[in-house]
Amino acid sequence: MLHVPVLLEESLDFLLHDLSGKYLDLTFGRGSHSQEILKRLIPEGSLHAVDRDPEAVLFGKENINDPRFSIYHSNYSEIDSLFPEFQFEGILLDLGTCSTHLDNPNRGFSFQSNGPLDMRMDISTGFSAADWLNSATESEISDVLYQYGDEKASRKIANAIVKFRTMKPLKTTFELTTVIETVLKRTGKIHPATKSFQAIRIHVNQELHHLRVVLSKLHSILRAGGIVVVISFHSLEDRIVKNFFKPEVDRLPKDIPINTSVTEKYKCIGKKIKPSVHEIKNNPRSRSAVMRVFSKL
Question: Which residues contact 184 (CB under 8 A, 6 or more apart)?
């Protein structure tokens, strides 16, 4: 299945305020946003893209032949070393998991097809889901399932995982799904493994940590008046984004006078934006998306 970009028109309408400017797509994926950005930029404009997945970077190099385009293999939390001298007019962060990951059994992201239990965005580094599940303590597994997946049965699932691995190591997505289904039975549209797979993926890739880091570094590579567009798909991500860009005066204790010297770095542009009913109907994976837009002061 091809990756379908979420909130494409809405995000680019905010992002591309100067069609001759320099832009940065920090989550290239399969290039849906990047290719549309290049269509709209005039010849003087340029686009740089980043992805932590080597397959995505290879796809970009092989499929986008445009002198205005460059792509880099890196975690987006390393942008300060990638672009020490750059100043961008706009920066895009689409935090959703690429559909090509979910649809490729060999990546191990989905419970709907059998494959190695990996879940890494960058298979060249870090630990796989199987590595972690076969070595973590029961309480560590339970904490991750609860904190990142809001899984109410986290303790029971963690206990079932630990019992399973005493007989044999967990190696495949279907093995993990079967273990979860011994604890939770399907009662509605949501598969019982959904929350656990999401939580494990977030943990394996340290997604929330890297999000906090990249947000703290955006200011140094963004021009005054430059735009940041962030599309989140998880309430934890959206909360981090919302709180990070909240004016610093709002973070002060209530007993400190408002005229205290505070330097605000960004202003919020409009309210959070969600996909239309039409978009959700055509792309159900967009239903949890939330877009927030900010401008550097």
Answer: 153, 157, 192, 193
